[in-house]
Design brief:
Elements (H helix, E strand, L loop, with lengths): L27 H27 L6 H4 L10 H16 L19 H25 L9 H10 L11 H19 L13 H22 L15 H25 L1 H6 L1 H18 L18 H24 L1
Helix pairs in contact: 3-4, 3-6, 3-8, 4-5, 4-7, 4-8, 5-6, 7-8, 7-11, 8-10, 8-11, 10-11
Length: 327
């Protein structure tokens, strides 16, 4: 006769009461890894299509400023700059470069973070020339709103507080809109854009230099530190170059409207503008699912070289515009 089990003792598992480990299949590590990879893939696809949508500005110059309707020189230029930055701040996931590592320029959602860095660099140059040359001649004073906007856009894009990048860039947008408002006061409190060809040449030079930098990065094989460019980092150069093209594309459309008089009197300039705008527009919205870096004679695409074809075409047309303006 067996003695009863001591009080509190645990009964040994039997066939009728299997242990907890038997409820988990032996392949559970494989299932977890597969689920994680599937989730990763879904996130990448969602970010891909979200980026495609985000790449379209949604601001139509011709609707905001209908052709044939009078405007004050400078308001199309400044409004377009403000719309570009406002779109980056207030659509999608907002400003990415200063986000946590999953959404910043390090991992996962890094494509738009690098694209926004390119957008910021191009906007800085575009605003600088606007402040220094297009609205200022010789010893004239700076327009104060443009001076403040230029200063705001110089803030560190990676800073998340004291002050946050978003705070300064929103301030820059606010000053650009204040500049536009000042064009319509009586008397005007903002300096109008002048339409001298010599000043426009400076803008074309700045944009040409930016596209030259993009071209060099799209062919780069080593980083500044001397390390080889790895397959998982080539997309950084791709999207920063695309950010340049995106800004210049929209701003060239604005400049074409602002400088309608010299373009109308010299039709070749209007043609060159169109021939530069077209490749820039294509470069601005290129969005491969994965940025590949295939060899020239390989079976895989080399998306950096594909983007550079548009960048180089636009840069050549902008150079031709400079030559025409200088004559």
């Amino acid at each position: 006769m067996s003695s009863p089990a001591p009080e509190g003792a645990k009964a040994a598992p039997t066939a009728a009461t299997p242990s907890a480990r038997h409820f988990l299949p032996r392949s559970w590590p494989v299932i977890i890894i597969a689920a994680a990879l599937a989730a990763w893939g879904l996130i990448i696809v969602a970010l891909h299509f979200g980026q495609i949508r985000h790449d379209h500005l949604g601001f139509d110059i011709d609707k905001a400023f209908p052709p044939g309707k009078p405007f004050v020189a400078g308001e199309i230029y400044a409004t377009t700059m403000a719309e570009i930055m406002d779109h980056e701040l207030n659509s999608g996931f907002g400003w990415r470069p200063n986000d946590i590592f999953l959404w910043g320029p390090t991992l996962m959602a890094d494509n738009n973070a690098h694209r926004q860095i390119g957008i910021l660099v191009a906007l800085r140059e575009t605003c600088r020339v606007f402040k220094d040359h297009l609205t200022k001649i010789s010893s004239n004073e700076y327009d104060q709103n443009l001076l403040l906007a230029d200063t705001d856009f110089r803030n560190d894009p990676y800073r998340w507080m004291l002050p946050a990048a978003e705070t300064k860039y929103r301030s820059g947008v606010k000053h650009l809109r204040a500049y536009v408002a000042g064009l319509h006061t009586n008397p005007p409190t903002s300096r109008e854009l002048n339409q001298r060809n010599i000043e426009l040449v400076r803008l074309m030079q700045a944009w040409s230099d930016l596209l030259g930098d993009a071209h060099a990065n799209l062919y780069r094989s080593r980083t500044d530190a001397g390390a080889p460019v790895r397959p998982w980092t080539v997309d950084n150069y791709f999207y920063e170059a695309q950010g340049y093209a995106y800004v210049i594309y929209h701003m060239m459309k604005a400049v074409k409207r602002e400088y309608y008089i010299p373009l109308r009197t010299k039709p070749v300039l209007a043609t060159l503008f169109d021939e530069a705008i077209d490749p820039l527009g294509k470069a601005a919205v290129m969005k491969p699912l994965i940025v590949l870096d295939g060899s020239p004679d390989g079976i895989f695409a080399n998306h950096r070289r594909n983007l550079d074809a548009y960048i180089s075409e636009a840069r050549q047309k902008i150079y031709s515009i400079r030559e025409e303006l200088s004559q």
